[in-house]
Structure formats: structure tokens, C-alpha cells
Amino acid sequence: MNENKYNTIGVNYKINRTADYRIVSSIVGLLNLPTGATIADIGAGTGNYSNALAILGYKIKAIEPSEEMQRQAIPNGNVEWYSGSAESIPLSDNSVDGVIIVLSIHHFSSVRTAAKEIRRICPNGPIVVFTFDPRQGEEPWLKKYFPEVYQKDFNSFPPINEVADVIAEEGQWKKTIQKFPLPHDLQDKNMYAGWNKPEIYLDPRFRQNVSGLALASRSVIQKGIEELRSDIETGKWDNKFGYLRNQNSFDAGFRFIKCVVS
What we know:
The protein has 262 residues and is an alpha/beta fold. The protein has helices spanning 3-9, 13-16, 21-31, 48-55, 67-71, 111-121, 142-145, 147-156, 160-171, 204-208, 211-214, 218-234, 236-241; strands at residues 38-42, 59-63, 79-82, 98-102, 127-132, 173-179, 182-183, 249-250, 254-261.
């Protein structure tokens, strides 16, 4: 996991990347653990999902390499913070009842090494991963304005089945994959959250907290923004994509993986 990257783009991260209650509900249902259980949140960021689970009564061990992310965390008595990476988790063997990984697995330097560490700290599961695979979803309009950024996601996010297989094989766990179509009012503003609200991409504060946009070259982003702004102002965007404003959800390719002892 790249600490320096998130020390840069993590500024004001918690403003845009708040925990969405539907993602939280799905995590709780997939974990299927009683309140009071201890859960490791790997790549916890600013702790939005750690805190959301802590409020529900779970004890969280939040693992995060970025000091900037940790600095923004809201203190919670049920959340214990550790500086560390997925490939070297600073927890004892068999020390947690479950593990969650929320939109961070694409930043792991080695999913296989991380899977070994996850098995070490949680040999029986459940392991719940929320991630993204552009091969699985509908093609987004975003591709028209930011083709280089969209294409890069195919390199950044490994195929969902490969990720599930690597994790499941390491722990000899049973795996399941579940779709998560993005709601029209998603609170966790990831790169595809504005599938029905193109205007949010014009906001530099939104772009700053989305790694795909924040880390792309300035010229690529500026070109896309100028074209998008023009199409919104002239009505071209609505003429072509306006039907999305009336949809309740969009399958961009976000998925949950659950691994547990069979």
C-alpha cells in the first residue's frame, strides 16, 4: 500500500468519502457476527467504515499506513488504530473474528501476501471485501471524458474472480461474490458515484479524494473537465446520458467478496 500517495490525496478525505449506510448494512450482513466481535479493517483510511461498525457495537482494529488518513480519524472508544500495511499486519495470530477490506485492495502491493496475513490473523473468516471490477459493470459515460483514467482501472483493479480465488485458496475458504449497484444518492463519493450527477466532477474537492482522478496527469483531467463542462452547459450530456438522472441505481462493477470456512 502506498502511504505517500494517500498522504497527498487524503487531505479532506473524510468530507467526500463518508460511509454509505447501504454499504455498511451489506458488510454487517455478510460478516454475520454478533455485536462485540472484533473486526480488522485493512486499509481503513480515515476510519469511516471502522467508526460505522464501532457505533453498532463491534470492536475494530483499524490498519492504515497513511499518517494523513489516520490524522483525520474521529476518535471512537471501540476503534484501535495501528500503522501498518495489508502485507504486514501488526496483529497477533488468530486475534480477530472477522476482516473487512473496503475499496482498498487495489492499493495492495501483493494480494497473495495480504491473503496470507489475513489468514494468519483470522484463520476461520469471515473475510468481506468490497471492491470494483470494470469488466463486470455497465460501461460508464465517464469513459467518454476520461478514457485514460477509465482504462487505467483495468490495470489497477484485478479481475474480481482472480482476487476471490487468491484469498479463498489461501485460507481454503468458501467464496461468494455479490453485486452492489451504486445507488443514485451514494454517500461514499468514489470515482463512479456521480454516474447520474456529472456536475460533481467539476468540483476539484471531489476529484482530490478520488485516486483515479487525483493521480492522473493534469492535462488529461483538464481536457476531460473542459469537455464535460461544455456538454453540461449546452445540454449535450443530458441529450445523451440524461436518462440516468431518473435511474435509482447503476451497476458500475462494484462487488462484495465473502470468504469463510466451508
